[in-house]
User: What shape does this take?
Amino acid sequence: MTARWVELADGVLVRRYEELDLSVGLVIGDSSALVVDTRSDPGQGAELRTAIREVTSRPCSVVLTHAHFDHCLGTAAFMPTTVWAHPRCRDDLARGGAVQHAEALAWSRAQRPPYDAALVRPVVPDRLIADDVELDLGGRQVLLTHPGRGHTDHDVAVWSPDTGVLFAGDLVEQGADPDFTDAFPLDWPTAVTELLGMTPRTVVPGHGDPLAAEFVAAQRDDLSALADLCRAVLAAELDRGAAVSLSPFAPPTTFAALAKLRRPEME
Ligand SMILES: [Zn+2]
Assistant: This one.
């Protein structure tokens, strides 16, 4: 298995990839479809587009959950179309994609063929999710929402109210610890609580298999425990080594979260 569709509800699908354990979404209405994330480069985006064409002939727009390379650098394969994202995701990609190229190169060093940054043009989103946005796909509404800072400062989730499916991007992770590289550890639990308030039936993480809400609530509790440890470190009530030993997450994950304590949110 390198890639496969999983139908979560009628016309709501996730495409699962072995590479990076990535999950990409597709919501199909009567008049149009919405693609949730576009993979790591235009070639991968083209594979996704071809796979979508086997499922639906409806015109597709795109929403990016965030600006990490594996979620957004395949967008060029879908152009021309509208591309939705949070304003800070747009700003990040408008800077030219140097950060994303570095991420992709670091990850793909051992891959064949190697990532070629010269071939990848980041697409700058043209539609912004400053507040919640409701899209009508024809007989089907979806909500694009930024639940607050968490995995990044611009995460967007996609909610399908008629099916109870929520695409959470990397705010939720299955099969590995959440990634704190660009995270806001004190804010992250609140963002996940916001998502759980929608009472989803199925939550699609950015990486890993679709989940029941109970798993997401347990991960939120772990994120809350880690946030409490971070606060204790900030208050000099706990040293970092003790925080690592008490953390519900692996030491590298906890160290990555602690490294974010220099952010302005902590001052
Ligand atoms: Zn990410």
About this structure: The pocket of zinc ion is lined by residues 66, 68, 151, 170, 179, 206 (CB under 6 Å).
